[in-house]
Amino acid sequence: MKLLRNISLPLIASLALFACERDYDAPLLTEPEYTGPAANITISELRTQNAAATQDVPIIITQDQVLKAVITGNDESGNIFKKIYLQDETGAIEMEVDQSSVYNYYPVGQTVYVDLNGLSISVYGDEQQLGHPEGYLFRTPWEDFEKHVSKDGWANPENAKPVVIDDISTINAAPDNYKFKLVQFTGVTFQNGGKGIFAPEDGYGEENITDSHGNTIMIRTSNYASFAGNKLPEGKGNVTGILGRFRGTWQLTLRTANDVSDFTGSNEEEGGNEGGETPSGETVLFQESFGTPQKNGEYWPYLDEYTGFDNPANMFECLSEEKPTIRSSNNLGNVWFPAGKDITIAIKGINAQGNTTATLECQVGANVYDTGTSQDLNTLKVKCNGTNITLPSKIVTQSENQANIPFKLTVENVNISESTTLEFSGTASDNTCGLRLFSVKLYVPGSGSGSTGGDGGTTIEPTPSN
What we know:
- The protein is mainly β.
- The protein contains three helices and 30 strands.
- Helix content is 7%, strand content 36%.
């Protein structure tokens, strides 16, 4: 009895204490409030002031500067590693942080004030990044990060709304206005939709999306992303992500699986390479992307040896003594016209389907890779059934990081015949840097279609293949 009493009394006491505790609500969390100095610099100003930073020589910030920004991307899914993305009204920048699971502390939509004094601007892939001068790869140690980055208020996803873009080519008009911003591309399709996955188990995945104008950009996904094994969606939909830039080329990084949305689940409306009418009403007479060429040992295949075209290989012919090769640059197939050589190719037997005029759309790039180089893309000479066609002028330069980036060039009201031949030439006198023909499209616009301007483009992943 004594033993029972000794056991029962503590038990009763603990139950009574538990019952009392249930009467109390959990204490309210205190909303974070920033009380430090006011912001006195923008992201655009920060970039400009530290433009002299290089990969080898970063700039340490020694001024009392405070940046106000919103977090637009973090490591929630594992696709972004040890970094966050900051954005304000003037631009966006990547910040390196030596910590995992940052999203638990600094979620998307969180307004922050960054004390820049003591941090650094370094360069990776020709792009500036904010970090710590003494950190490994300039990653900010966590204890320093928490001292320098102060939260203000609760995170609100409405603070991190993407820039909505329906024409991928527009990002090339002013790269500084878009790089590292949160964007959403609408009405896009995955080239491997319904077939591939976002990333293999043993490395990064590189998958292209294409908009309704024919422009393409690559989505790069880590095999550590929680959605890496998800199947690529079919049909048309919207894709949101951080618009990264590496050595002058674009790549989109998804934050979570939710960044892929509203896909129709069917590719039935997309049409083929020839003869299909698109949902916009245009009739595509011919379309070629030059596939996914691979090297044979150290060498790219010649055009007359290549079999990976979207169309029958017998439609393609080299008309010059010098032979062009089919290459891959920025993850896109292309015909390579080397500098200082006379090369002409022909695409024969295009069925006009009873039409007498059509719109020609080409994506062209130049190898302006060396310092100070530039070239007008209309130095690629074009003929249709023997008649010269002048492409719109588009000068690309090394200083603008435009090496080997495809730009869309459009010519309307091209006279065609029942069996049309297109010719593309690079000449020794005009082709000073080397030209790439990334794609060709010949189509009849629908009644509701608008014309496309003379400079647009696509872009994808790092280093050009020369």
